[in-house]
């Protein structure tokens, strides 16, 4: 799955109208709506703040007063064309006095998003099941060896009273089964699903 690494902004001017595209990595509709609301406040003096988003739990777009189908739809199509997920696009328009017509608007909003995508760092991400394992310091060597042999990836380490690792398996091996041989020496719990940069 492809997404953008971090938020970017780009600007184009067409027939005296200014189009500012802000792209954000977002995982949920809730997150998208919060960003859209924030930008509506930031650019409250703009003629239009048109939006499009594709996230884990849905997608949507809004023409924000532009003629139907001339803004939000071309914006979401630009995201789809680039196979992007978990991303929110907001194009802020300051009208320059010259009407662009329906075709001109479609091209302008589409171009605005494509320029921002061009300026973005595109990354490959995948969903991984994250497991937490907890064990004694005396078992560290054996556990580390097992992690290497099973080609597991440690994404977080915590050294407290006991050692705690958050692990993912890039081959989607069953992490619980891997550590069964340690019997009661190790606690293995499913933690959550996370979108992580693709683990090479």
TrEMBL record:
Transmembrane segments: none annotated. GO terms for biological process: regulation of translational initiation. Coiled coil: none annotated. One of its GO terms (cellular component) is cytoplasm. PROSITE patterns: UPF0029. Residues 15-117 form the Impact N-terminal domain. It holds the Pfam family Impact_N. Belongs to the IMPACT family. This is Impact N-terminal domain-containing protein. It comes from Methanobrevibacter smithii (strain ATCC 35061 / DSM 861 / OCM 144 / PS).
